[in-house]
Specification:
about 260 residues; three-stranded antiparallel sheet; six-stranded parallel sheet; alpha/beta; single chain; binds zinc ion; about 15% strand
Length: about 260
């Protein structure tokens, strides 16, 4: 039996799958891993949260980066891996998708917002740091390009920032607590494209294992959790997901 067939069996046998995704699922959409050579942080210093809130020059620099598309998110489309995950969710097999990604590609592939836990926020829109009001990037870009206006909240005048969790910014406590609860409650954790080197990602598979779940990891490179995994595939996520959750798969499960 191949490893993909074994993964298929693990998924079929599970009743509550928690999917955990990282940069590796989106590299197949052409989005480079931030931390990899050639990724964003090998070319420029991240702007820390305190720099953003404390300096107009840093805010201007941050927005210039966002609007110039330097992180290469804009226009990217979900790939076979995202669509396979969406089928797992649509079938009811996967209850939740926990992601470290900020590229909105799980939503774009059809995963409902209430099934998604974004640990690092979302780069496709902005929020007011004071009142939380959502702002769309397109309107902000227009005023930035036309008048050099650094975005502020149209309601309260507070600072507006992309909804990504920056370095130096607190993790979203509610999302993290929910991710930990789902990790304890699942009977299979399926890790897709995370190097599991960044907290809290690294802790979630351990939590799942301690709570009695099986752990399957699909990642091109080795991870620090490989030795506790029940199944390990160093293969393309898109190809694996097309095989273990093929088109039409969710429908037959749901019926
Ligand atoms: Zn506001």
């Amino acid at each position: 039996m191949s490893d993909r067939q074994r993964l298929s069996q693990l998924i079929q046998a599970a009743s509550r799958v928690a999917v955990f995704t990282g940069a590796g699922i989106s590299t197949e959409s052409g989005i480079p891993d931030f931390r990899s050579p050639g990724g964003v942080w090998s070319r420029m210093q991240p702007i820390r949260f305190g720099e953003f809130t404390g300096s107009e020059a840093k805010r201007r620099e941050a927005w210039t980066r966002t609007f110039s598309g330097v992180a290469r998110w804009v226009g990217r489309r979900p790939n076979a891996g995202h669509y396979g995950v969406a089928r797992l969710v649509a079938s009811g097999k996967a209850r939740v998708v926990i992601t470290q990604n900020v590229d909105n590609l799980h939503q774009d592939s059809g995963v409902p917002a209430e099934r998604l836990i974004e640990l690092h926020g979302n780069a496709s829109y902005a929020v007011c740091l004071d009142c939380g009001l959502r702002h769309e990037l397109e309107a902000l870009k227009q005023r930035f390009d036309d008048a050099g206006e650094i975005p502020v909240c149209r309601d309260c005048g507070g600072l507006v920032k992309t909804a990504v969790i920056s370095f130096g910014q607190a993790m979203p406590a509610q999302a993290l607590a929910r991710a930990e609860a789902e990790s304890r409650a699942c009977d299979l954790m399926l890790v897709l494209g995370s190097s599991l080197q960044v907290h809290p990602a690294a802790g979630l598979p351990l939590t799942a294992k301690r709570s009695g779940a099986l752990l399957a990891i699909v990642n091109l490179d080795a991870t620090p959790q490989d030795e506790i995994a029940d199944l390990l595939l160093h293969e393309s996520i898109g190809e694996v997901m097309e095989e273990v959750a093929p088109y039409g798969w969710g429908v037959s499960v749901a019926q």
